[in-house]
Please model this.
Amino acid sequence: MKIRVSHFISIMFILIISTKLSFGQFKFQSEADWKFAHEMIYQARLGNCDVAYKVFDSLKLDSKFKHPESYLAIAKCLQKNGNEEEMKNLISDAQSQGILNKTIPHDSISHPELKEKCILMLLEDQGAWSLKNEFIIDPEVKESLVRAGIDFTEITPKIRRLPGLELHKLHVMELEAIVEEYGFPTTEMIGGHGMKGVKMVILHARKDILEKYNTEFKDRFGSYTYAYLIDKTRVANKEKQLYGTQGDFDEDKNMIFYPIEEEHLVNQRRMEAGMEPLEIYARTLGIQGYEVPKHE
Model:
């Protein structure tokens, strides 16, 4: 059976953009600085924190450098190395400068019952049950949910055990019912993690759902996440993608991107959308040796 890459990309996708609801988009002044910062973030994800610290310190010499993802990458490194106090100070400093927004406390969310429903959608979309009857989900996703106050002991028994396609159809029906009764959800209604559930439901839905919620998706999730919806819609319409977010395995089981419109310009589009360079995204997905062509 041929394995599709779309679900794998979705799993990676939520790790890569898991904090996008927490801050606005930073505009780099040059492509070189953009690539430098994202290489630092990539090294931090690999655990090469000493390298990341040095690059971050050099980037911070510019008082205008207020790139949220860079601050979060360093914060995760500090936490990983047991420097909790330094991590908290960095986050607090970034929030005081407006680089990172403060998270919405649970008691100020207007629809907590919908929040739980949408978080269940997120867990069902991203996780799976093992043969040992254990619910398995990426540790980084689980950690972010635990830190947000999600009690896995309480919520795990509520996770439904259905085949993937049935779950996707059920999620769309549930989202449609929510939209009909309450309107399209907002962070104030269901919190950041609830919105991640909404995001994944739409991105894994049929083309008609992608097109139906196109405007709301762009307004709620911003240009970074919207790029994925654009690409998925274009691929579904048998058109070339714009941002290089969609791919598949070739006959030799090597992961490849679907064709990209004017591929030599893809990094310009990605930088404008607040994304990382396609070469780094490729490495994250296990596509080795990819380089954006210099000419058409």
